[in-house]
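Private note to self, pasted from the team thread so I don't lose it. Backbone tokens:
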């Protein structure tokens, strides 16, 4: 039979061993540097990270956790703790990203995922900034976009691709802005649009092609994103004129003409500062008149006539003259100015 004194001694020794074990965790040396195995927890006793330190620097494998306790990150540190290979996870232990840190900054190639083994992008880093190629992939893993970065600023070729690998977009970035010629394609490397950018603003001539890449169906001119100069559209079937006019500082200006696919003129209008101003005529097909008259800054003026498709006149009205309209516009402007002054 075991004596009571012996039982007491066994209990004391067991207690010493039991309560001495946790003391090996979360230790600091006399200089206040973390040493050995650490498990840091939040105020609710949930783990934040689990890993080892030497002289306050992480070494070996570190694990970081979500509030739920699920694995969030695994980092494997070099001996001095300056370099680590890292994997980040979505909840459910699904890989989100993997790459290298040097001195806690992203470096070299990083890969990103949106589902198990579904690579969505690759990015190159140096000293925490994007440098070099970026590649983006679709859900089938096919390359759909390539970009070039310098110090986290887009700089260099920009390309997009269709699922079959044929080009979709070809352009160039310079210091974060689209610059120079840009090309857009239909599937099958068939040219769709050729234009130019200046500081990411449309500038110069833009040309649009039909689905075959053969017939020009549109032409625009831009001055720093504003339409400026000749404007034209052509019917895709045979390249016959569809619309012809001009812009000035983003506003329609001068005579504009419109035709149907048979070459019949459907409409002729005149603009000033983007408003209807001057002669106006609209036709049914085969140049049969539908309505005719004049505008003064979006207001009908003088005699206006309308016809049905058989050529029979259906309406003839006389609107205020230009002089009357000028007076009305002047009075309206004065009233608006008075209201502003009273505010």
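Design output:
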């Amino acid at each position: 039979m075991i004596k009571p004194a012996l039982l007491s001694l066994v209990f004391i020794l067991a207690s010493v061993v039991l309560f001495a074990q946790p003391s090996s965790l979360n230790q600091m040396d006399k200089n206040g540097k973390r040493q050995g195995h650490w498990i840091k927890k939040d105020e609710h006793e949930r783990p934040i990270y689990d890993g080892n330190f030497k002289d306050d620097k992480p070494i070996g494998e570190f694990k970081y956790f979500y509030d739920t306790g699920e694995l969030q990150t695994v980092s494997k540190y070099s001996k001095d703790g300056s370099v680590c290979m890292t994997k980040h996870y979505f909840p459910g232990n699904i890989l989100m990203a993997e790459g290298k840190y040097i001195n806690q900054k992203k470096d070299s190639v990083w890969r990103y995922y949106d589902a198990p083994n579904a690579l969505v992008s690759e990015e190159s880093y140096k000293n925490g900034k994007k440098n070099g190629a970026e590649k983006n992939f679709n859900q089938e893993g096919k390359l759909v976009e390539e970009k070039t970065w310098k110090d986290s600023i887009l700089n260099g070729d920009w390309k997009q691709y269709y699922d079959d690998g044929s080009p979709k977009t070809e352009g160039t970035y310079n210091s974060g802005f689209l610059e120079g010629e840009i090309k857009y394609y239909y599937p099958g490397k068939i040219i769709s649009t050729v234009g130019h950018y200046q500081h990411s603003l449309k500038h110069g001539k833009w040309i649009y092609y039909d689905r075959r890449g053969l017939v020009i169906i549109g032409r625009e001119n831009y001055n720093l994103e504003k339409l400026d100069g000749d404007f034209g559209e052509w019917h895709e079937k045979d390249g016959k004129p569809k619309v012809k006019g001009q812009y000035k500082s983003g506003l329609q200006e001068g005579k504009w003409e419109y035709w149907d696919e048979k070459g019949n003129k459907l409409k002729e209008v005149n603009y000033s500062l983007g408003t209807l101003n001057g002669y106006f005529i609209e036709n049914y097909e085969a140049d049969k008149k539908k309505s005719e008259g004049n505008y003064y800054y979006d207001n009908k003026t003088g005699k206006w006539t309308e016809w049905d498709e058989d050529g029979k006149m259906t309406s003839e009205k006389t609107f205020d003259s230009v002089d009357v309209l000028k007076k009305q516009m002047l009075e309206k402007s004065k009233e608006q100015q008075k209201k502003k002054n009273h505010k």
